[in-house]
């Protein structure tokens, strides 16, 4: 399973990259705003900085909600850097734009996916990635992980190439459960990745090893 980090924060991206397990980055307009990145030029410059920091795919989301606007924005984003994946919302014009980009060989990430039917549409339109938001489904007492399982089954039934990118991952158990369910990718905050390191027996065991070493090597 690929690990993407879901942030526009350069320090967090650099820390995950330094760990050696990062495969890419996802951003969205809210995450960019959180970092204070505003204005078309600054936004493009920030994507460039992210691409310089990591080796993998970097999802950059369009703001337009009409086909022509999405195509024009997406083409600018894709031209910025070969690592850029154009992120499109799952609305009718987003699906049309996904098909347009897919036919042109430009990679896409269809976002704001909350049902198996939406994921099926995105795959039919040739999406590179589909982003089901599991945390936001959990927030409204719906089983987000079940959506990952449903999409996995549908994509496997028809051998769709679209990769399932479990999004809105909130914590370490989401990461583990997505891996069990065969999600191709997960995107979450740095804490969801670093949380995988933690086990008290590892800390206790290491402390004991070091203590025993010191006894014999004074
Ligand atoms: C997906 O790519 C989104 O950026 C993201 O995962 C949304 O997560 P949130 O529900 O924690 O905002």
Quote the beta fraction: 15-25%
Gyration radius from CA atoms, angstroms: 19 Å
Which kinds of small molecule does this entry bind, naming each only once?
erythose-4-phosphate
Shape: globular
Largest sheet: 8 strands, parallel, barrel
- Helix share bin: 40-55%
Q: Give the helix tally.
A: 11
Class of secondary structure makeup: alpha/beta
Please report the distance between the alpha carbons of the first and last residues.
Answer: 44 Å
Secondary structure: elements and pairs:
Layout (H helix, E strand, L loop, with lengths): L1 E5 L3 H10 L4 E3 L2 H6 L5 H14 L3 E5 L5 H14 L3 E6 L2 H12 L4 E6 L2 H9 L4 E4 L1 H6 L4 H15 L4 E4 L5 H10 L3 E4 L1 H5 L5 H17 L2
Parallel strand pairs: 1-2, 1-8, 2-3, 3-4, 4-5, 5-6, 6-7, 7-8
The structure holds erythose-4-phosphate.
Erythose-4-phosphate binds next to helix 7.
């Amino acid at each position: 399973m690929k690990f993407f980090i879901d942030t526009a924060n350069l320090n967090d991206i650099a820390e995950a990259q330094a760990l050696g397990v990062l495969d890419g980055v996802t951003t969205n307009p809210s995450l960019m705003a959180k970092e204070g990145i505003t204005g078309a030029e600054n936004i493009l410059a920030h994507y460039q900085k992210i691409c310089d920091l990591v080796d993998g795919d970097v999802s950059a989301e369009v703001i337009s909600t009409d086909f022509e606007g999405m195509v024009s924005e997406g083409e600018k984003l894709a031209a910025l850097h070969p690592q850029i994946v154009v992120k499109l919302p799952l609305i009718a014009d987003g699906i049309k734009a996904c098909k347009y980009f897919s036919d042109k060989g430009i990679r896409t990430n269809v976002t704001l996916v909350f049902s198996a039917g939406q994921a099926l549409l995105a795959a039919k339109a040739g999406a590179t990635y589909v982003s089901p938001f599991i945390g936001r489904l959990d927030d409204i007492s719906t089983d987000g992980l079940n959506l990952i399982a449903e999409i996995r089954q549908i994509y496997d039934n028809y051998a769709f190439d679209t990769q399932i990118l479990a999004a809105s991952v909130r914590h370490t158990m989401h990461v583990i459960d997505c891996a069990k369910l065969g999600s191709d990718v997960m995107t979450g905050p740095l804490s969801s990745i670093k949380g995988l390191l933690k086990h008290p027996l590892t800390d206790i065991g290491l402390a004991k090893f070091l203590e025993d070493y010191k006894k014999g090597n004074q």
